[in-house]
Amino acid sequence: MLRVMEDNDTGMTTPASTDETAATTGQIAAQSTNWAMLTHLSAFAMFLGIPAVVGPAVLWAVKKQEDAYVDFHGKEAVNFNLSFLIYGIVSAASLLLLVGLILLPAVLLTWFVLVIVASVKASGGEHYRYPLTIRFVK
Q1: In sequence order, what are the residues at sequence separation of 6 or more whose Cβ sits closer than 8 angstroms to the Cβ of residue 5?
Q2: CB burial class (10 A; 0-12, 13-18, 19+) of residue 74?
Q3: 116-131, pLDDT tens digit by residue?
Q4: Alpha-carbon distances, residue 48 vs 13, 40, 45, 67, 70 (angstroms)
Q5: pTM here?
């Protein structure tokens, strides 16, 4: 829906400013979507030996006061990575019972896929909520 503004002197209508139009249609700024996406992708620092929750927690802590969209995705990423850290520890412990031979790869594959899905959704301006997540941070 395009809003128009009427000029009181001439009676003519002109389109509202792009910032005002974007705000009224609920579009998310490109900078916000990039930071939100980066918040999710920073969990891949796990492959460098850094716990997966550290990257999202740091970016969320830095940006949460500046941007509500990044705040939402930061909380989601932190909660998800904390939850999957717990699931991974339980799966690793269940290796002794041989259940972990199936459970641990399933947890890791699910984590990997869901981080990518969340990153894509965040870059598209959607408020994505991870499934299977314990909400530690509200």
Answers
A1: 13, 14, 15, 16
A2: buried
A3: 999 999 999 999 999 9
A4: 56, 16, 5, 28, 24
A5: 0.78
